[in-house]
Design brief:
alpha/beta, about 500 residues, 17-stranded parallel beta sheet, NLRP_innate_immun_reg
């Protein structure tokens, strides 16, 4: 699996990324161009997808000591560039964050960087080396950095083939009393259950680690059991645990539920793309419902959850007042499951703010229940319904609920829902009547010019506060295109995302 495909796949499970990523990339591409070149803030340098010839690199290097944060993501950097960056690390006490992700640095490049990192003048706190073609060979030097550099609090090494031996070397560094690392990202690093044994020793002795990402490593249930026991027995107050696509089954859920029940520090738990099923969800929900559990984010995308699992999740949604975000993307919940979830959304004790239901086999049949839930729920801010065949009829029903005075929805995603211009009148009413609505996605639809004109007229209304209208792969004529561009000129704070 290529890194690009991995990134896009991960993006589908995360809020707002689908349109925010290209916008951010576009800004970065425009940000570099001599003579203006650098972004406005001298404290931060952010350059993406831009390669440098020798003269431009030399000119850039001469300015690097001005910055506290440097991001050179996918800039074609190699070993020779690392020599200059290592020198910078050795001399600049101001630099606290360095992001070199998606560059072919290789082990040789990182070895050169480590020389600068080990210099006493270096005060770096955050280091990003994701997808830099690294192997176990560079992990000995990284271990030395972990042992000696107490200022380092974040290390991102995802998408590198570190393997079992590389992972073990890093754990030796983590064990050192000088190491104060708080965030460790090791997704897609070809780690195995042997690494979990070493990592468990770290968790049993160190209290500094707060964020741990082990996603997309073939760990299995036995390794997860070992990890959970270490979390329960050790002093670690982990806040975020990510175990997506780790070959976990329902057999691990009893141990994970115990962690949820006994670790009130844990506020973010991601277990997406593990086939735990309804039986596993029922066990996890027991842990979440424990009064000691303070979970805020629960990501359960592609976990083979069906309608019976939703019955348990509805209780969590309705009663767990710490829970703010839940992702159920890619589960075949069906309309029956959605009916259960709506019961949870109607509970006056619910505090859920973000609900992701993309690609959940929903139809128009469940949309009246969704509408009814929205009409009484005043806390939900984001509803992601893309990729469900709810059609115009379903959207019209949902709009009725959104228009209710109780509803405070800010973001509504309806892309890939078989929409036409028929639903646009209802959407236009929502745009005008719901001042809380800031984002509306109707991508991959067939609304055509007729639908575009209706939405544009609504956006022109002074009551409209919409900031983003997202229309990926939605086709219209040049006349409608002119109208959209004129609208952006009329309302500078408004943007059409295509």
């Amino acid at each position: 699996m290529t890194v690009l495909f991995r990134t896009l796949k991960s993006c589908l499970a995360l809020p707002r990324v689908a349109w925010a990523f290209p916008r951010a990339a576009g800004r970065a591409l425009r940000s570099w161009g001599f003579p203006e070149g650098l972004e406005a803030s001298k404290m931060e340098l952010d350059i993406q997808c831009q390669e440098f010839d020798a003269s431009k690199w030399k000119e850039l290097v001469s300015t690097l000591n001005q910055h506290k944060t440097i991001r050179l993501d996918d800039c074609g950097l190699g070993v020779s560039h690392c020599e200059d960056l290592s020198s910078l690390l050795s001399t600049s006490q101001a630099l606290t964050e360095l992001n070199l992700s998606n560059n072919e640095l290789g082990d040789s490049g990182v070895d050169v960087l480590c020389k600068g990192l080990l210099n006493p003048n270096c005060n770096l706190q955050k280091l990003w080396l994701r997808n830099c073609n690294l192997t176990k060979a560079c992990c000995e030097n990284l271990r030395s950095v972990l042992k000696s550099k107490s200022s380092l609090t974040e290390l991102h090494l995802g998408d590198n083939s570190l393997g079992t031996l590389g992972g073990k070397a890093l754990c030796q560094g983590l064990m050192d009393p000088n190491c104060q690392l708080q965030s460790l990202q090791l997704q897609y690093c070809e780690l195995t259950k042997e690494n979990i044994e070493a990592l468990s020793s770290v968790l049993l002795t160190k209290s500094s680690l707060q964020t741990l990402n082990l996603s997309n490593n073939k760990l299995g249930d036995a390794a997860v059991k070992h990890l959970c026991q270490a979390l329960l027995d050790g002093p670690c107050n982990l806040q975020s645990l990510q175990l997506e696509s780790c070959d976990i089954t329902h057999a691990s859920c009893k141990d994970l539920s115990a962690v949820l029940s006994n670790k009130p520090s844990l506020i973010e738990f991601c277990i997406g793309e593990n086939r735990i099923g309804d039986a596993g969800i029922a066990i996890l929900c027991q842990g979440v419902q424990n009064p000691n559990c303070k979970i805020e984010k629960l990501w359960l995308w592609e976990c083979n959850i069906t309608a019976p699992g939703c019955k348990e999740l509805a209780k969590v949604i309705g009663t767990k007042e710490t829970l703010k975000e839940i992702s159920l993307l890619g589960n075949a919940l069906t309309d029956e499951g959605m009916e259960f979830l709506c019961q949870g959304l109607k509970d006056p004790k619910t505090k859920l703010e973000s609900l992701w239901l993309r690609d959940c086999d929903l139809t128009a049949a469940c949309c009246k229940s969704i509408s009814s839930a929205l009409s009484v729920n005043s806390v939900l801010k984001e509803l992601q319904m893309s990729g469900n065949c709810i059609g115009d009829e379903g959207v019209i029903d949902i709009c009725e609920g959104v228009r209710s005075p109780n509803c405070k929805l800010e973001s509504l995603w309806l892309g890939q829902s078989s929409l036409t211009a028929v639903c646009c009148e209802a959407l236009a009413k929502v745009i005008v009547e719901k001042p809380s609505l800031l984002e509306l996605d109707v991508s991959y639809s067939h609304i055509g010019d007729e639908g575009v004109f209706k939405l544009c007229e609504a956006v022109k209304n002074p009551n409209c506060n919409l900031k983003y209208l997202i229309l990926y792969d939605t086709y219209w004529t040049s006349q409608a295109d002119k109208e959209l561009k004129a609208l952006e000129g009329l309302k500078p704070e408004f943007q059409v995302v295509t």
